[in-house]
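Sequence, please.
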């Protein structure tokens, strides 16, 4: 009985994470509401994400920003903030931050 309940909880978490990822990927240039900012993520092909500014205070997100500063300085090739990590890693981090903020 406990195993089945745990499996249902995991499925719900996965569905919620997929929803968060879809929302992050759906953003376009005109979709940066107040309290959010756009970042470009990826090693070769960059994908644009719109994230809440509250993520800026998270130590894990700050580590990504430090990596971006080391690699690009303040001259970002896309014209926006570029984060040099795998898209899957970024989605995992932002999904975790989203779940912590619920």
């Amino acid at each position: 009985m406990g195993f089945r309940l745990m499996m249902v909880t995991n499925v719900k978490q996965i569905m919620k994470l997929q929803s968060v990822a879809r929302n992050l990927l759906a953003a376009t240039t005109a979709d940066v509401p107040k309290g959010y900012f756009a970042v470009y993520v990826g090693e070769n092909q960059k994908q644009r994400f719109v994230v809440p500014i509250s993520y800026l205070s998270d130590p894990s997100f700050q580590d990504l920003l430090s990596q971006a500063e080391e690699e690009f300085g303040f001259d970002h090739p896309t014209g926006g903030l570029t984060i040099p990590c795998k898209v899957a890693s970024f989605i995992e981090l932002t999904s975790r931050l989203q779940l912590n903020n619920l």
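The mean pLDDT is 77.
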